[in-house]
């Protein structure tokens, strides 16, 4: 109790700062603020301008494509890696470190490395052609209709390891007697994981999904490091749109409106998860 009282001022300060900045952004989003904040009220005109901006629509479409592919690929790859390590393979500790290491690397470093690797003149394409395959082509990073997939590749490489760690913890919580019973009944290993283990990984998968979904909404560093939103606006994402309008285009009101929309998106993603956790906790208390 004493420790909680001692931490209360810091908790209230942090909470006040977070809530205060959110409320301030919402207030600015309904003003005519440009370079400097203004204390007027223009209703939802900033939001109307936002949804009439073609660049915003492109960024949202890119985020949707990135989000679906990124979350799906990370969950599938993370599950496969977790199942691999769950076999108690030799060197499991080393493999776990190798798979998880990319998550410790900043998105800026990841973006720069993958930018070099995907550069048609320096990276994979150039290397393969030098090996005697002159017709090999892998120039997605300079193609407007393919560049978003290169960002997915880099982001999946970095984030799939943490999904592996979460799902592996879930796998290690499954009763091993179930596998012994399945072996007695002649159930193949793949069917055991698909029909018995996977349904028990619901909480771990839910946690992984929330982590990935929040990462999707705020994706910024890897885009700037790899493509700067280009070619053109082909890899533009909402976070970059907000930062460009906030600092580059001196449009504080429009940037605040966009950030409020993204905040509501995050809350829409988290609210069902919070509700499900609360329901599970309530059931656990009454059981």
Automatic annotation (TrEMBL):
Highest taxon listed in the record's lineage: Bacteria
Pfam families, sorted: BPD_transp_1
UniProt key word Protein biosynthesis: no
Domain ABC transmembrane type-1 stretches: 60-273
Annotated signal sequence range: none
Protein family: Belongs to the binding-protein-dependent transport system permease family.
Protein name listed in UniProt: Sugar ABC transporter permease
Organism the protein comes from: Ideonella azotifigens
Lineage: Bacteria, Pseudomonadati, Pseudomonadota, Betaproteobacteria, Burkholderiales
